[in-house]
Prior knowledge:
Blueprint: E1 6-10, H1 13-24, H2 44-56, E2 61-67, E3 72-83, E4 88-96, H3 104-120, E5 125-131, H4 135-144, E6 147-158, E7 161-171, H5 175-186, H6 201-206
Parallel strand pairs: 4-5
Antiparallel strand pairs: 1-2, 2-3, 3-4, 5-7, 6-7
Amino acid sequence: MKGRFVALAPLQVRIHAAPLYEMTCGPENVHLWTYMSDGPFTDFAQFQLHLQKKAASEDPLFFAIIDLADGKAKGYASYLRIEPVHRCIEVGHIVYSSALQRTVAATEAMYLMARYVFEELGYRRYEWKCNALNEASRRAARRLGFQFEGIFRQHMIVKGRNRDTAWFSMLDCEWPERKRNLEEWLSPANFDESWRQRISLSSLNAVASSSRTPQP
């Protein structure tokens, strides 16, 4: 999956471990792992082992997010809970380095993954789940056009703590409008010479209706 700013490639320890460790680990990056089921990592060998398990997994299926400007992996994400029979799939285990967060590239990565789900795989339901306390993740889901479905109370125990899980979804009947909004936001015309957005993605998706009845 390749866009103008990023490419998503299968996660490979040999290629991606060093830049990902540099970008996501160390004392200054501990906050990136607050709501993750693993991490933070303080040892490169430990991080390599962590990535080896992820790279070998088929569900979740992990991708490195590569910045095309310098060719470095600056985050990763996965497809998970892959259900071909029901044509339902989730995006998750998302780790964005500080260099990737709040950039056009970050949004483009999620656009590429959603487009592949609906247009290449032909799935009908795309899910986003996060710790209910993770306000940043909840805002990101809404901004991208996912619809909030509710809270699963005491859904998990993560790092010895209770986790309530917020559920979001996007349906195939909603994708054409979400796609138009994402592509309008990503368009060069939406940014000035300082890369300030002219219109926000949240405002574009705010007018998008999610009341359509999905087709059987």
